[in-house]
Amino acid sequence: MGRSSPSPPTIIMPEQADPIAFQTIIPQKSYRDLAESIGRTTGDYNKFLKRRFDSVGTPREMGARKAANRLMETSSYESSLPGQSRIKEDRFLETPREFPIRSNNRSTFDTRPGKTAGKNKARRLRGGGKIEKTSAQKAAGMLRKDAASDYRRALKRVEQERKKGRKSLFLKYPKSPGFAKNKDEIFAPKDYES
């Protein structure tokens, strides 16, 4: 019982055809429509930008406000630091008054008769001399000076921006861009073989 082998498959190749080229022609009206659309989008963006500038200010104005806040923050920090005392002893620190107040045995205080506030000059505190700053106070002072110079610089920038006006901050778009002026003929297929 012999088996016969199957016949080989037949492959049919189509005739080779010339390639076909396609070219899309975009009419000039489409370019004009695109230009108008971009113009509308730019206009809307500028409206929203103007609203933002009116409500929170320009980026430079916001920067100046931030610099002012930083200056206040560093000044507050510097003033909150404890300094080295002029009086080295642990005793009651006097408040400058126009007349001396002395304690007595009755848990009250005495003043000399005839002394009233406002008639005599305020007395100086004991332990005069120059107050030395701690290293933390010196560092805080440097931070405050840097913040103050940043604030002055930010204010100058805002002033320059206000002189120029806000127009430079908005997007500009030409009313008649070059691509919207292209004629339809430049996109027509051309025969280069002749």
Overall description:
- It is built from three helices and two strands.
- The model is unreliable at 86-90 (pLDDT under 50).
- It is elongated, with a radius of gyration of 43 Å.
- A two-stranded antiparallel ribbon has the order 1-2.
- The longest helix is centred in the C-terminal third of the chain and has 30 residues, at 135-164.
- Helix 2 (59-80) packs antiparallel against helix 3 (135-164).
- With 194 residues, the chain is an all-alpha fold.
- It has helices spanning 28-56, 59-80, 135-164; strands at residues 102-103, 109-110.
- It has a domain at 28-82 and 133-172.
- A hairpin with a 5-residue loop joins strand 1 (102-103) and strand 2.
- The two termini are 71 Å apart.
So what's the oligomer here? single chain
- Percentage of residues in strands: under 5%
Shape: elongated
Strand order of the largest sheet: 1-2
**Sequence of secondary-structure elements:** HHEEH
Task: Provide the low-confidence segments as ranges.
Answer: 86-90
The structural class is: mainly alpha
The biggest sheet, with number of strands, parallel, antiparallel or mixed sense and barrel status, is:
2 strands, antiparallel
Mean of pLDDT: 77
Q: Report how far apart the termini are.
A: 71 Å
- Total helices: the number is 3
Radius of gyration: 43 Å
Number of strand elements: 2
Percent range for helical residues? 40-55%
The gist of it:
The chain has 194 residues and is mostly helical.
How do the helices and strands line up, and which of them pair or pack?
Layout: H1 28-56, H2 59-80, E1 102-103, E2 109-110, H3 135-164
Antiparallel strand pairs: 1-2
Helix pairs in contact: 2-3
